[in-house]
Write a structure and sequence with these properties.
Length: 333
């Protein structure tokens, strides 16, 4: 671990400590040649800045705090990567936490706001509770919400075009592939993404003259285990569906497990489609037809808004970005 200090850099570069500090902070007043010299010396000494100390002195944080409901799922891993890469490219750092059974989203947000670490907060929230809305509205820290389409007018937000993506998928299954008995495993029913996907599924069936069948609905929670559990229930129906649309790819993977255990084949006996296009979906056998969401674009867009808010580079009007979707046609239907 490096023990180099600004004082040591100043001594070796034969400049003042103040000049080193300004150069490492990208102060435009420092001559280019001097800045190059200081950066070279800092690299030779393996200097690592004390981020917290620098933020304290400047009274401004350069940390983007990312709050997720989970960090184990592949979708969230990809999101973390995209936010971190985008933030780092703009000279900022990312701090990550998750809400879980021991800590609510409200607690996670409040902790970041109260401890003074956050320069901005990016939070993926399933829904906006009155308590969370109160916390967010009472802070001056820039907030970017992910997956919160119902509250985009109040905060900067980046959300997925869920409705359009599902409508295109169901239309394809009915009009091109000829499916009529299409079941759906939803995500949590207090989750905005899940509700939009479910609503689009129902509407698109009805637009195609197919009556909504309550027996064909299973309620999952976006986990592989819930996908398998709900798929088993659907497979036990006397009037079994021809295809299962899982509200995310992790639940679709659970369907694969259940179908295999029943000795059935995909898609010959029953089809499966998903949503998200996570990395592993193309490696399933057969490969999974799914709705692609650019997770990289989602994370990059959120980081860009958060940092530009920190720099006061955006107009007062809230930014509302919708991430487009597209079907990835594979072999599971």
């Amino acid at each position: 671990m490096s023990t180099a200090t600004i004082k040591e850099i100043a001594r070796k570069a034969n400049v003042s400590i103040a000049t080193v500090s300004r150069a490492l902070s990208n102060d435009a007043k420092v001559k280019h040649s001097t800045k190059v010299l200081i950066e070279r010396v800092a690299k030779e000494l393996d200097y690592k800045p004390n981020i917290l100390a620098r933020n304290f002195v400047k009274k401004q944080s350069n940390i983007v705090c990312l709050i997720l409901p989970d960090i184990a799922d592949e979708f969230f891993s990809d999101l973390i990567k995209s936010v971190d890469e985008a933030s780092y490219a703009m000279g900022y750092f990312t701090m990550i936490t998750s809400s879980h059974k021991l800590r609510s989203i409200e607690e996670a947000v409040h902790t970041f706001i109260a401890n003074g670490l956050a320069g901005s907060i990016i939070a993926l929230i399933p829904s906006l509770s009155p308590e969370l809305e109160r916390i967010l509205k009472n802070t001056e820290i820039p907030i970017v919400l992910l997956g919160a389409s119902s509250v985009v007018e109040k905060f900067d937000s980046v959300s997925i075009a869920n409705y359009d993506g599902v409508a295109e998928l169901i239309d394809y299954l009915i009009k091109v592939k000829g499916y009529r008995k299409i079941a759906h495993i939803t995500g949590p029913m207090d989750n905005n993404d899940s509700l939009e996907r479910f609503g689009s599924y129902k509407d698109t069936l009805e637009k195609n003259g197919i009556e909504f069948n309550r027996d064909y609905i299973g309620q999952g929670d976006f986990t592989q285990e819930s996908g398998k559990r709900e798929c088993i229930k659907l497979l036990k129906l006397t009037d079994r569906p021809q295809l299962i649309f899982a509200s995310n790819d992790m639940m679709a993977i659970g369907c694969y497990q259940a179908i295999k255990e029943f000795g059935l084949r995909i898609p010959e006996d029953i089809g499966v489609v998903g949503f998200d296009n996570i990395f592993t979906s193309c490696f399933l056998s057969p490969s999974l037809t799914t709705v692609d969401v650019s997770i990289e674009l989602m994370g990059r867009s959120a980081a860009d808004i958060a940092i530009r808010r920190m720099r006061s580079e955006l107009p007062e009007a809230k930014q509302k970005i919708k991430i487009p979707t597209k079907i990835v046609f594979r072999e599971s239907c």
